[in-house]
Amino acid sequence: MNKKLLFAATFAMCSNFLTAQVLYSENFDNLTIGNLTTDFTGQTPGQGGLYGMSHTTIPYSAIQIKTEPNKGNVLYIDTDSYNGNVGRMVEKRDLDIVFNQRTQGNDLLKFQFDFYTGKDIPTDSPQIVEINIHSAKYFLGGFRFYGNEKILKGKRPQSTYNNGFMEKFIGKTYNTDLVLPANQWVTLAVTIDFTNAKIYFEIPHLGIVYQYDSLPFTFTDPTSTDEPNTNGTPVLLRIGQSYINTNDPISMYYMYDNFNFSAINTPPTPTVSVAEVLSNSFNLFPNPASNTINITNSDNYFVQNVKIYDTSGKLLKTQHFNNQKEVQLNIESLTNGIYLLHIHTDKGVAVKKVVKK
C-alpha cells in the first residue's frame, strides 16, 4: 500500500465517531535506493520532501534509502567513524500545513515510527539519537536514545526558553531506564495533548504507556510570543545523530521506517499509574527526620496540603500549603516510627514514606 503522503486522510469512520486522521505518513517504499539528498545545507529538499543536513563535510552516502529484509525500503543514517561531535540530521518540514487541516476536536498529535536499535558497540562514549517534534519556536516532545547503552528516554518540554526539555524514564517500572536490545526493530510513539498539557510515551510491543505533564501550548495566535499564549502548532520532525568521542571512532548506523503522524481526540491509557508517577517525582529530606521534612519535586507539582497517617491508616495531622512547589512539614510532635505522607497536589495525590527518629 502506498503510504508516501496522505494529507488529511482519515480512517473509514463517520465524522461523529472519528478518532484519528493520518496527516502524513512515509514508508520509503516509493523512494529510490541510494542517497537521500545531494544537499547537506538544508536548503534543497531530497527524496520524499525530506531535508538532509550535517555539521561537517561528510559523504552523501551517510544518509540513504536502503532495502532491509522484511521491511522494504528504510531511512538509513550512519556515523561511520567520523570523529568528534559530528551531527547529521533529517527533517520533515511544513507539518503545520497538514495539522491545520485536521478535523475539529482532533487536537492531540501522535507520531509513531519504527526504529532500528543498531549493533552493540564497545565504547563508553554515547551515540546519541534524537527524534524530536518542534513548533516554529518551541520543542514539543520526542525521544533520546543512547546507542552505546541502548537506553531509550522520553523527552518532554521543561520550559519555553531555548527549547528547554527534560529527559524522562520510560522503563517497565517508574524511575527505571528502558534498555532496548541491539539489532532489533521496535515501534515507538509519542502523543502530545496540547489542551490538557500532557505527553505520552508508548512502546507498544512492551505494553508501556507513560504519561507526563507537558506545557500549555495553544494554537490560538501563531504570531504571539507571550506566555502562556504559546503557539504549539507542530511544524517540524527532526531526526539527529551524533557520535562524540574523538579518540574512539566507531562505525555505526541506525534506521527508521513507517513514519505516521495522526491527529487524534483520545489519548492512550497510561500503564503506569498517575499516583506512581507523582510519588516518584517527590523527594523528602532528611529522611529519617526529627523535626522538619523538606518536600520537593522535579515536575512542578504544587502542594495544597499534606496528610500524615500512621501505618494502621489513622489520620494524625493535616498541614495546609498555598500551592507551593517546595514545602516544609513539621513532624516534631510525632512519636518515633514510620508514617505515610499523602501529598495532595494540583495533579493528584502522591504517597511517600517517612521515618521519625
TrEMBL record:
Question: Is the keyword Membrane in the record?
Answer: no
Every copy of the Secretion system C-terminal sorting domain together lies at: 284-355
> Superkingdom, according to UniProt?
Bacteria
For this UniProt record, the keywords arranged alphabetically read as follows:
Signal
Signal peptide residues on this chain, from the entry's feature table: 1-20
State if Hydrolase is listed as a keyword: no
Q: What is this protein identified as?
A: T9SS type A sorting domain-containing protein
